[in-house]
Design a protein that fits this description.
With 472 residues, the chain is of the alpha+beta class. The chain has 14 helices and 18 strands. The strands form 3 sheets. Strands 7, 10, 11, 12, 13, 14, 15, 16, 17 and 18 form a 10-stranded mixed sheet that branches. Strands 1, 2, 3, 4, 5 and 6 form a 6-stranded mixed sheet that branches. Strands 8-9 form a two-stranded antiparallel ribbon.
Amino acid sequence: MFTNFDQAQALVKQNAIRMIDLKFSDLWGRWHHVTISASEFTPSLMENGVGFDGSSVGFKSVRAGDMVLVPDLTTGFMDPFWEIPTLSFICDTMEADTKELFSADPRETARRAEKYLIESGIADKSIWGPEFEFYVFNRVTFENGVNVAAYRVDSIESNWNSAQGGHGHFIPLHGGYHAIPPRDQLFNLRSEIVNTLEDIGLKIKYHHHEVGGPGQCEIETPLLEIISAGNASMLIKYVTKMVALKHGQTATFLPKPLFGEAGNGMHFHQLLQKDGVNIFYDPDGPHLLSKTALYYIGGLLTHAPAILGITNPSTNSYRRLVPGFEAPINCFFSSGNRSAAIRVPQYATTPDKVRFEFRPPDATCNPYLAMATMLMAGIDGIKKQIDPKDAGFGPINEDIFSWPPEKRATILSLPTSLEMALHALEEDHQFLLEGSVFSEEMLTEWIRVKRCEENQIRTRPHPYEIELYFDL
């Protein structure tokens, strides 16, 4: 929004803005914020920042937790949800003593990945198009204790409410794809979400009802550069949840909130540019893809099990990655098969738009770290010239679920649990350390915390276990 501090300060004065909100992402992808009075919005803020405790958000140890936030002026927007006029910024996290960028800051990690790309000479820009799937529910309750484990969600669209009477236009399970009103009862909500996003400066490609009958939706942006795509991801989640809350509803990007229904993915479309030219395009290549694009695919699929340790970092991620729901569960690429880890969109045929999408990720990831991880794997594939066909990664355009088991076993499967993905990341992360993009310390801490989460789930009795085994 702004190119310098004077522009931002002028807007504050001209519009009688009273509050400045500073938002930042922790390592795990959750936004936090601190709000200062507009009287504190002075040039010294850009040098000294606003102090916060980095240990409380997992960045630092308690004994050395002091950090500061410095707003990225280009991200400024009027926050539409505050009653008092408030200008909001996404911030970088800095060391309190040296005022240097914190090395494990997720946005800085993404910047380093792109810097490594540029220094490699392969390309000078990575371009991304994340897709955002989410559910909107009317009510959610959950309870966990020594003697209870339960949750319940409800949706006005779902046919499980049909026996209660009412409008009669319910959506059956798996029947929500591009549903039209009156079945689609969320079109006004989605339009308000999109309208709000566009008002704060984010371009949106489209929105629609998704496959999941009880309130699944999708919003998609045009292709963006890596930091802009990360910022957009955080903003879309924030605005979606806030607009839903405003209307007495609740939105979740959880990968698998419903048993037996479609899950929420976060597919990442991606391509590389050099001097403004899409280097993934070759009019004579298979699926219009260049050798560079194919090597990038080779890198992604070679490292896919490890990549999922960062792009699919929740135990719930692996409730989604199961057969039967168009979920990507196999390491191959295809021009149409939606169970493939990588799909080449058949509609993207112009030289500037030819690309592919990596389908396994979901929105429990930190988008900055997820994109940095995928980019580093792709660069590794290009440097090592990993041909996906020679490596056994396809292309496969058949229905592999119709294959006999022995043939299907020839295709590498993706991890089926968080522990498997973390083990893969532990064994295969050298590609992330190149160019000092990630650090060994950061990855060790990531794996430690995620293993603790996995253990917390693993050691809790599950309600379905009570139904299965209580009488034995």
